[in-house]
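Lecture 7 notes: from sequence to structure.

We start with a single chain of 187 residues. Read the sequence below before looking at the structure.
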Amino acid sequence: MDTAAITDEFAASQALREGHFELRSGLHSNQFFQCALVLQHPARTTRLCQALIAKAGTVQPDVVIAPALGGVTVGYEIGRQYGARAIFAEKQEGRLVLRRGFTITPGERVVIAEDVITRGGRVQEVVDIVTAHGGQIEAILVLVNRSGGQARFDHPLYSLLEITPQTWEPAECPLCRQGLPLEHPGS
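Now the structure, written as tokens:
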């Protein structure tokens, strides 16, 4: 799947939005990827995750873990395609943790899956969880890496789309100065 076909999948589902957005990272941007709009279509999700897995090469995890909520569908589909368990970490008292009886056994091969990263904070929280449980991280797979190369991890990172969107600290946001209404789509 080439970049044009990947972009077409997002465009056809209207997942790429233009406007004035507050990202989960706290930054403001004129673009937002609402991956839920593409992930609501199982056939599209299958194709995108298949292309993402192809980029990762010979990775063969025992378990795929994703941060809730955005990464859950991606993690599940990637786990299904690998034939691996698919689990997720969720917030408890402001930080991601394993709940619901999910476990990672020391030595298990792990893939971390996410829909979109900007700074990579949630993925890093999952890296820390996996490491604390003794899992061996084989790769991090994300549909859209919008960090502009700023999100870096000590593990291989694969993404379908890599973009460098305009982002601003809230105090420096020109869209705020223009008085454009602020949307909080990731909240």
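The domain at 3-177 is CATH 3.40.50.2020 (Rossmann fold). Keep this in mind for problem set 3.
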